[in-house]
Amino acid sequence: MTAIPLPLPRRRFGVALAVGAALVAAWTVVALLWPSLAPFDPGAQDPLRRFAAPGAGHLLGTDQFGRDTFSRMLAGARPVLQVAPLATVLGVLLGTAIGLVAGTLGGLVDEIVMRLLDAVAVFPAIIAAVLFVALAGRSVTVMVLVIAGAFTPIVARSVRAATLVEREKPYVEAARLRGERPWALMGREILPNVGTTVLVEATSRFGDAIFAAATLSFLGLGQPPGSPDWGASVSDNRVWLQIAPWTVLAPALAIASLVVGIALVADALRARWEAS
Amino acid sequence: MRRFLLRRLATIPLTLFAVSLLVYAATELVPGDVARTILGREASPASVAALRAQLGLDRPVVQRYLDWLSGFLTGRWGDSYTLGAPVRGLVLDRLGASLLLAGLAFALLVPVALTLGLIAGVSHDRPADRVISVTGLTLGAVPEFVTGVVLLVVFAVRLHWLPASAQAPEGASPVTRLGHLVLPALSLVLLCMGYVARHVRASTVASVESPYARAAALRGATRAQVVRRHVLRNSTVPATSALGVQLQFLLGGLVSVELLFNYPGVGALLLQSAVDKDLPTLQAVAMVLGVLYMLIVLAADLTYRLLDPRVRLGEAVA
């Protein structure tokens, strides 16, 4: 399939898409290059400059150990941007595979798989996450698995829906009459045509993954305390909210800017896809 | 309607069973010896063995699961490992506190989201619509604890309008209590608002452009009359399913909001009992929350059906 040129609303969605993409790109660069961008070592303590207010010397002030808030905010981009893409890719791959198989094969397989997914989806993700972390202990691997596990049924459901639509189209019918086997039908015929659905899903799920990773670390279930990770920083510093609000506000606004950036991109993509 | 209701009610025990299996399996597999955790590193092997026997940890897993399940169903929820007090009183107390917070958030969410969605839908593609849609989308993407931090810094630390803790001092008046709940409730509302408003907007746009609304306008009805008589009901009813979805989000959000605002609710208890490996409490909280989620989904489905007789949910969902 060649890409169909998008006729529509470049102007309408252009601004949101550009702003969103710029935010995501900026944080990606920071996550990769923070060691050369940060003015201070994010772990370096300075007992003489505890709780320094934002201003000259320390752009966003310092925390209870005299660590530079700005440098910690830059360093905090890395852990979240490691966990979220991994979890997204894993969840989208699993979900796409399940949705594609269930949708193409149909019948009893479809029925069983979808009922199982329903049962899993009923269980609130946050409770599952708490239980799972209590069970397996806190680690980055556990965080990736928990998030990917929560995404799998969501992705599977929408890929299945798209597959069901494609399955009824003439080109699939023709392929089936040609004698193509189910696996070939899935891989060669249907998969390329549900690609847009997968892409839109992946973008939305990526935003959710950042949301989830930040929340888990805030709850003490993700990155360890003391890490410059944004969620962990908000959690560590929230007791100092009254005397040093910048130590909480900087990582909080960093999270906000990244998730909003992704949401804008995801929304623009979805709108373009629906318009086409 | 009755058949739908019966079928939905029949699935409840099944889901409950699945939830209980999951909760029990997860808590059963917690690494480390619970008796050792409670007694500490220096306890003698004899006292650890005695406590294991007292807690029933030396019996087979299936028997313990059945004992636990029948205990849960008959209201015997055991004693907390860390507090020594009965779990049931503790969990129900915390549940009451959480429902108060969630109830306030929901009571704020419904009128705000419906109004914003209606305004956006009626002013389709004009600046008001653009502003509401983008704001809702943006706030819905931001984790509730982040929104909460910003609200705290602005309204508690800078302006001193509202207290920073959700917990009112002992013996405070109901109004003071409510004041303490405003910021945590607001962080939940801002999270869910955009999604509901988006649904209301979509159905409002559809009903504003519908033949019956156009016909009413051609008959000379004013814009306000068209909206009130023809658009309002048709655009708000479909939003009930969106509200059901968001109510689940709202309950999930309780965990981090309760932690941020130091509120003694069931979400904070879930987290605390998991950290302390207080298994009876963790199991009870997870079960109670699981049941609550299920009831919300059911209530949302039923409300949707009651309000809109055209919907045949049972048949429509493949």
Structural class of chain A: mainly alpha
**Integer average pLDDT of chain A:** 84
Strand composition percent of chain B: under 5%
Helix fraction of chain A?
Answer: over 70%
Q: What's the total number of strands of chain A?
A: 0
| Count of discrete alpha- or pi-helical segments spanning 4 or more residues of chain A | 11
Point out poorly predicted stretches of chain B. Answer: 313-318
Q: With helices defined by DSSP (H or I, 4 residues minimum), what is the helix count of chain B?
A: 14
Q: Could you describe the largest sheet of chain B, including whether it forms a barrel? A: none
Largest pleated sheet of chain A: none
Largest interface: A-B, 43 and 46 residues
Helix-strand string of chain B: HHHHHHHHHHHHHH
* Total strands of chain B: 0
Radius of gyration computed on alpha carbons of chain B: 24 Å
Mean pLDDT of chain B: 81
Helix/strand-derived class of chain B? mainly alpha
The oligomeric state of the chains shown is heterodimer
| C-alpha termini separation of chain B | 18 Å
Offer a few descriptive terms.
heterodimer; A: 276 residues; mainly alpha; disordered N terminus; B: 318 residues; 14 helices; 0% strand; elongated; disordered C terminus
Indicate the topology.
The complex is a heterodimer of chains A (276) and B (318).
Chain A: H1 10-37, H2 69-75, H3 77-105, H4 107-122, H5 125-136, H6 140-167, H7 170-177, H8 182-193, H9 195-218, H10 230-237, H11 245-275
Chain B: H1 2-28, H2 34-39, H3 45-55, H4 61-73, H5 87-122, H6 127-141, H7 144-158, H8 174-208, H9 211-218, H10 223-236, H11 239-260, H12 266-275, H13 279-307, H14 313-316
Describe the structure in your own words.
The complex is a heterodimer of chains A (276) and B (318). Chain A is mostly helical. In chain A, 74% of the residues lie in helices and 0% in strands. Chain A has eleven helices and no strands. Chain A is elongated. The two termini of chain A are 15 Å apart. Mean pLDDT of chain A is 84; it is low at 1-10. Chain B is an all-alpha fold and 318 residues long. Chain B has helices at residues 2-28, 34-39, 45-55, 61-73, 87-122, 127-141, 144-158, 174-208, 211-218, 223-236, 239-260, 266-275, 279-307, 313-316. In chain B, helix 1 runs antiparallel to helix 13 (279-307) and helix 5 runs antiparallel to helix 6. The longest helix of chain B is centred in the N-terminal third of the chain and has 36 residues, at 87-122. Chain B starts with a helix and ends with a helix.
